[in-house]
């Protein structure tokens, strides 16, 4: 039996050691092989008779097949890992060589890198990853710079606010507010009325009503700071309406302290009809001069999505006089709607009331809506445009000269 045990140990060493060395296995397999051999020996000692012979070659084949299966299962994952490690080593070598290689590469990117068919394809893929990483770094740096600039601006504004909050400036602001309020109070007694028609709530969405109220708030502030302010009237104004809620959001507790007149009555019930003029862009009549004895009405609505002719139809239904601003007479208008915001209308009317100068008043029209002011009468400009069109059509020079002589006779 001792000779048989010795033979078994030699067989196990000769069968296990080469396989372990070939597949890079650790010494943990040796106790397993040793226990298997000893257990088999013990079983053979108990079960086998001395007369029976042991088939060592068959046992050796069984042991080799089982160990190879276990070793192949255990070594399949390290082979993949070794491939990724080799790819990372090549990336490090290329980075040292000065090629465009990204700093951070994920396992998926490494796998796609390994799947590239050629070396040039690998270089292009790495260049793409490098540029992508570079763009991300630049975006991050720009965001940090913007954040630093914003923080610096906030610090500067806080410092300027602290300087502005001096005792003299606070006293100056409070006295100016008192002066503005005094002017507004005087306008409620002696000033010219200006009516805002608040009956367009049903024809606008909630967002459009909010925009309208913002423009009205700006108009009220502009009027309060004017030298000779209007007496503002909000007519057809109902409590718990969308207008009312939006005004409460802006003014809060100061809503009840505003020096304006708010009423549910229509303007025809408050003022005589012969003094009312409804300002609308759809009116066929053009306003020539500002009349201090008239009461002008402005529709409180956003004209972006309103159908044309709504305010004109309302004025005709009430039997009121209408007028439009002379935009075509003084401005070279671009293509588009000639509707102005409520705060722009307030600026224009205040300037007309103080100076009666249309050019100064129409400077508050946004410059994107017109090319410039008209230097000549519109009829002469139309004649010159007609001549330019004839020249573009390629007519004969004699006909052009005759047409020029007819339209511009010698004095």
Structure commentary:
Helix content is 61%, strand content 8%. Among the domains are: 98-155, no CATH class; 191-373, Alpha/beta knot, CATH 3.40.1280; 376-405. The protein has helices at residues 2-23, 29-47, 56-96, 107-115, 119-164, 167-190, 206-224, 242-251, 267-270, 310-318, 327-330, 342-355, 358-361, 378-393, 397-407; strands at 193-197, 231-235, 261-262, 276-279, 295-299, 321-323, 331-333, 370-373. Helix 1 (2-23) runs antiparallel to helix 2. The longest helix has 46 residues, at 119-164. The strands form 2 sheets. The chain has a 6-stranded parallel β-sheet with strand order 3-2-1-5-4-6. Strands 7-8 form a two-stranded antiparallel sheet. The chain is built from 15 helices and 8 strands. With 411 residues, it is of the alpha/beta class. Helix 7 links the parallel strand 1 (193-197) and strand 2. The protein is elongated and about 130 Å long. The model is unreliable at 19-53 and 70-80 (pLDDT under 50). One of its GO terms (molecular function) is tRNA (guanosine(9)-N1)-methyltransferase activity. This is tRNA methyltransferase 10 homolog C.
Radius of gyration: 46 Å
Q: Which CATH architecture of the domain at 191-373 would you pick?
A: 3-Layer(aba) Sandwich
Structural class: alpha/beta
The CATH class of the domain at 191-373, by name, is: Alpha Beta
What is the helix/strand order?
HHHHHHEHEHEHEEHEHEHHEHH
Average pLDDT level: 77
Terminal CA distance reads 145 Å
Number of helices: 15
Major beta-sheet overview: 6 strands, parallel
What share of the residues does DSSP label as strand, in percent? 5-15%
Q: Strand order across the biggest sheet?
A: 3-2-1-5-4-6
Query: What sort of overall outline do the alpha carbons produce when their principal axes are compared?
Result: elongated
